Structures are given as C-alpha cells and as structure tokens.
C-alpha cells in the first residue's frame, strides 16, 4: 500500500487524508496542534457567492465546483448542512451600494439573488434590526458546523501531534502540504501569509430572542460581519487583520464584532459569550489557493484564504487526481507555479 504524509490537520488536510484513505493510501497526518487552526476557529460558511466580488471569477468557479461536492461529502461524514441560504443587509447608503454591486455581479453570473423589501426581510428573519437600507436573499450560500466536520473527518485517521520541520524527514512515498498559514515555514518562497481573524461564539440565554434561521452577513458602515446560527447559539465573525503571526484576541476586535453584530441583531446583547478565538487564514497574492504538484514527492494544498472549509472537498479530489498523475483542469487557476 503506498504511504502518504499529510502535513496539517485542518479541514483541508483531514479531507485529503480521509479521501486518500478511501482510495487505498496508508495515511498519517502531522500537526503540532491537530484541529486547532483556522478551520477550528472558523464560522463554517460555505459561501462562494456572498464571499465573492466582481473580478473574482476564478474564485467563484472554484467555490461553486466545491459546493456541488458538499452534499455527498457531508452525507458520507454524517454532518448536516445548513442549506437555508444567506441574507445580506446593508446599514447605510454606501453599504446599500455595496450590496447593489454584489447583487449585480451575482445576477450577471446567473446566480439566484433577490432584493428584499423591509417587510420581506422582517417576515424572513423577524429578530433582525429594522431600518436597513438594503437586503438581499442569496439562497445558494450554505454553512456547516466546522467543529463537527473536523471531528467526523478525523475519525479513523492516524494523527501525529508533532511539528514537521523538514518534509524530507517524513517517511512516506508522497507528501501533501496542507499546513495553512504555517506552510511558508515548510516550503521556501511559498507566497502564503497569515491573515488574522477574530471570532465570537455566543449562547442564547433564556428569554432572549432566537438567532436568525439563516446566515446573516452585515455591511455596517463599511465593516463586514457575519452571524452564523448554531443550535442554541451563534457564531459572529470575523475581523481581518494583516498583522503577521498573532493569535491573540484583541479588545478592539471583540468591540468591533459586538458592535456590528448588535447593529444587525440587537438581541446579541442578551446572549452569553462562550468563547473568543483568533485564527490565521492562509492568504495568497491573488486570493486563490495553491493546489498542485511542487516536485516528484510533494503536492501543495494550501493558501485557501477565507474559503478553506468551502474548498476542502474539491481540494481533496484535486490532490487525489494529482497523486494519480491526472491533474484536474477545473483547478488550473490554483496551480502553484502561477507566480513564477
Ligand atoms: N470565510 C470567512 C472568514 O474567513 O472570515
């Protein structure tokens, strides 16, 4: 049986490991802190549409291709998908203009997007604040409980809780680098940088209004916030800061998240705080991942930026195709050599 070392036990690494095990590889995953990186911190949105923006057509296509794999992927893992869609709200006139741009772009790509009146928004999500300048319904963006997903993916996978310093020292026929923001320490000159994000997990206390049924994204005086419902609670994310390797939650980050979440859903003031976390997204210069062969023994699957959860199933398929010597055309925009 051929052996595979996967470096990184996040959503991408564990999806590669899970998929490779099913294809007959003997797989070991290496990570100093398994399942505690960006995939653990994340909100679990599967959102190629509302994470998109004009000009990001490759990212849209990749995201849609991966989203199409999610129903079967989630079903095999026993992880329910939240498929009620996403609502986007804008607070002031400039925020509404941003929603208009997004809606026009989605329309232009033939994706379903509806402008909601205030009355329609209130009927759809009665606990939201009133008086938004604009609101969109985007039914094609979903979510998953990322922590439940990580637990399901890791079942039956051999995970070694150790830092890898040298890929050459790994005893495996093939190696896949899925180390997210830490990938640059393993592969010289890799164009991957940390992009910090802070996030809150909240609990609905007795007597408080319930969270929305759908994911709600808010543009609040130019700042972005998202509220992802969970049974009995809510995930509120996320800040975006280019501050290098820094996983400390800041007072300013929490302040901004709470203020923006409250502008969207006033009831959050009554919720309990379960946890505050910070994670490092693996950013690349063009906001597209790096998926493909680096050398005869090494495949890259990193740099997924804001979309690691979304892109995990497609990345796993692409890595398996690469290992089989048949690279997929639909991830050609993510080839690692594109910057050289
Ligand atoms: N995908 C959302 C985020 O990275 O915050």
UniProtKB/TrEMBL annotation:
Give the molecular function GO annotations.
Answer: glycine oxidase activity
Entry's NCBIfam families?
Answer: thiamin_ThiO
Give the pathway annotation. Cofactor biosynthesis; thiamine diphosphate biosynthesis
Sequence intervals crossing the membrane: none
Give the enzyme's EC designation.
1.4.3.19
Q: Which SUPFAM superfamilies match?
A: FAD-linked reductases, C-terminal domain (SSF54373), FAD/NAD(P)-binding domain (SSF51905)
* Enzyme superclass (EC): oxidoreductase
Q: State the organism named in the record.
A: Rhodococcus antarcticus
Recall the taxonomic lineage recorded for the source organism: Bacteria, Bacillati, Actinomycetota, Actinomycetes, Mycobacteriales
Alphabetical UniProt keywords: Oxidoreductase, Thiamine biosynthesis
Its catalytic activity?
A: glycine + O2 + H2O = glyoxylate + H2O2 + NH4(+)
| Listed Pfam families | DAO
Q: Which domain of life is it from?
A: Bacteria
FAD dependent oxidoreductase domain location, by residue? 4-319
Quote the protein name from its UniProt record. Answer: glycine oxidase
């Amino acid at each position: 049986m051929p052996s595979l070392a996967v470096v990184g036990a996040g959503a991408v690494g564990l999806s590669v490991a899970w998929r490779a095990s099913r294809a007959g590889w003997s797989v070991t995953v290496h990570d100093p802190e398994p399942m505690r990186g960006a995939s653990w911190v994340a909100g679990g949105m599967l959102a190629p549409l509302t994470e998109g923006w004009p000009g990001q057509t490759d990212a849209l296509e990749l995201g849609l291709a991966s989203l199409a794999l999610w129903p079967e992927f989630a079903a095999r893992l026993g992880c329910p998908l939240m498929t009620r869609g996403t609502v986007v709200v804008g607070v002031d006139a400039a925020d509404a203009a941003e929603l208009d741009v997004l809606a026009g772009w989605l329309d232009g790509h033939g994706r379903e997007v509806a402008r909601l009146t205030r009355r329609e928004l209130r009927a759809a999500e009665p606990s939201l604040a009133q008086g938004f300048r604009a609101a969109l319904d985007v039914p094609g963006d979903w979510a998953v409980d990322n922590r439940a997903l990580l637990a399901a993916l890791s079942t039956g996978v051999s995970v070694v809780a150790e830092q890898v310093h040298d890929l050459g020292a790994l005893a495996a026929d093939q190696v896949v680098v899925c180390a997210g923001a830490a990938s640059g320490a393993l592969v010289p000159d890799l164009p991957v940088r940390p992009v910090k994000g802070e996030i809150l997990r909240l609990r609905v206390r007795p007597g408080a209004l319930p969270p929305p049924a759908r994911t709600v994204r808010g543009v609040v005086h130019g700042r972005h916030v998202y509220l992802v419902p969970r049974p009995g609670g809510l995930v509120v994310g996320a800040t975006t800061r280019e501050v290098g390797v820094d996983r400390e939650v800041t007072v300013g980050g929490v302040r901004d998240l709470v203020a923006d979440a409250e502008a969207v859903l006033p009831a959050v003031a009554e919720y309990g705080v379960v946890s505050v976390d910070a994670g490092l997204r693996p950013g690349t210069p063009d906001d597209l991942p790096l998926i493909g062969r680096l050398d005869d023994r090494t495949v890259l699957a990193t740099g997924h930026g804001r979309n690691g959860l979304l892109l995990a199933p497609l990345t796993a398929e692409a890595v398996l195709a690469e290992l089989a010597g048949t690279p997929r055309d639909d991830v050609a925009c993510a080839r690692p050599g594109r910057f050289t």
